[in-house]
Amino acid sequence: MQVEDFNLFSTEICSFKFSPQEIQPLLDEVSLKEKQIKEVSKYFNKMGGVNNYHTDYANPVKLQEYEKLMMMLGNFFMNKNKTFNIVNYWTAFYKDTSYHEAHTHAHNLENNLNNYSSVLYLTNSGGTKFFSSNYTSAQKNELIKSEVGKIIFFPSSLLHSGINDQSGERIIISSNIGMYATS
């Protein structure tokens, strides 16, 4: 596993890269559960969802291999004296040229549940576009391209959108996380 920290808009983004051996069991599990995830998504799509976009956000399908990887990351953060609690996670499939409009995950901040979010890329298609919260910034946005096995952590209040602007399916798993310094 490779670790990389970098700043974007003076906002710390933490990136990890799982090896092919570490990510493969999850890729296999998602492939086996794809039909189930998309069945859950049908209800979402009937209620105003986006064409060519499927997610089990409303009723996530349990992914044991994802939870194992997140436990590994949780141990990493706990060794840095931070709590690490997954509030929720969900899978999303983006077909050719589909997107998820700009949004934040800050809806649970007032309840102190999550202050960080993550995106784990399971394909190389598309990416996540982040928008500067600093209106005087010369750099207005930044696109982080999808890369199989890469996971990024970012503040839940950071405005972002999911983009698949090319041929091929974009598959991700997103999470909301409570991560706080311990005393």
Give structural notes.
By secondary structure, this protein is α+β, with helices and mostly antiparallel strands. It has 2 helices and 11 strands. It has helices at 20-46, 64-78; strands at 2-8, 11-17, 53-55, 85-94, 98-103, 116-121, 127-131, 141-145, 150-155, 160-164, 170-178. The strands form 2 sheets. It has a 7-stranded antiparallel sheet. A 4-stranded antiparallel sheet has the order 5-10-7-8, with no helix packed on it. Strand 1 and strand 2 form a beta hairpin. The longest helix has 27 residues, at 20-46.
Give, in order, the helices and strands: EEHEHEEEEEEEE
Q: What is the tally of beta strands?
A: 11
Shape: globular
Radius of gyration: 16 Å
Structural class: alpha+beta
Mean pLDDT: 87
Question: Spatial order of the strands in the main sheet?
Answer: 1-2-9-6-11-4-3
Q: Please bin the fraction of helical residues.
A: 10-25%
Terminal residue distance:
28 Å
Beta-strand content: 35-45%
Report low-confidence residues grouped into runs of 5 or more. Answer: none
